[in-house]
């Protein structure tokens, strides 16, 4: 569905070097899957989505969408895809049904076809009783469902979704997830960006993590978690004491001798340093380990008992922070 090789996007700057937003990424999106683009602000996700949507031409590299060259066949590609921007871009002073009519006419569809598809899409979006209601009276969740349904008016085989659930409450997010699962079951290929790691873990078959305009890793959510994290994370909170000193003492239990008394090989030591580790946060320590309960028992045994402790499974958020860091990016 999408094949990108060495994709670059540079923007001119006044009195300096051009700004490189996307720096030579490779992508492959397969038919019928949900593919995620994850990354911090400014990583290049939106720029990549604009190139895939054929509204921004790549500076260098090749980009094929639906088997067509994006640099040559932009109009033909846009006619076969759906786009749900982060800003709904709905006509708020029109009714729900009128939004479908106006948007459908952009694709050259006749009024009868639009009416038929509108009825079906309103049922899909659970908005059948809102057809004659003005958009500006709808809730945030209703507007997002409407934006997704409207993007399906041309029956696209590929839909691009930019942060589809930003700002929604948990109930609305889960309803939207169910709608997206339905689309995927119907064979529609989805490409989405999101800042919600649980959303990416729930929806995405495969994903890439982008930072600084480059792909830093790719795979299924489970592959990425196994590659960069241990099975569990032990969260340790202490009422007092120097967290850096406590972290050093907790780390003392990581590099245990093998049963034969021999030290781990350099390769194993390097892998442990990446996966089994202790991170210092302002209010707690994160101890990455394959057995959180055993690690906690060892900490108590070494008289390092925390005020509170929590054992949880490692998540995609742990991977994301390991790959992109915890520094805030504006």
TrEMBL record:
User: Can the keyword Magnesium be found in this entry's annotation?
Assistant: no
Q: Which UniProt keywords apply?
A: Antibiotic resistance, ATP-binding, Cell membrane, Membrane, Nucleotide-binding, Translocase, Transport
An example Gene Ontology molecular-function term: ATP binding
Q: Where in the cell is it found?
A: Cell membrane
| Topology within the bilayer | Peripheral membrane protein
Q: Which GO terms describe its cellular component?
A: plasma membrane
Domain (ABC transporter) spans 2-237
Q: Give start-end ranges for the coiled-coil region(s).
A: none
The yes or no answer to whether the keyword Secreted is present is no
> Any one Gene Ontology biological process term?
response to antibiotic
What Pfam families does the database record attribute to this sequence? ABC_tran
Family named by the database record: Belongs to the ABC transporter superfamily.
Q: Which PANTHER family match?
A: ABC TRANSPORTER ATP-BINDING PROTEIN (PTHR42711), ABC TRANSPORTER ATP-BINDING PROTEIN NATA (PTHR42711:SF5)
The identity of this protein, by name, is: ABC transporter ATP-binding protein
Origin organism is Actinospica durhamensis
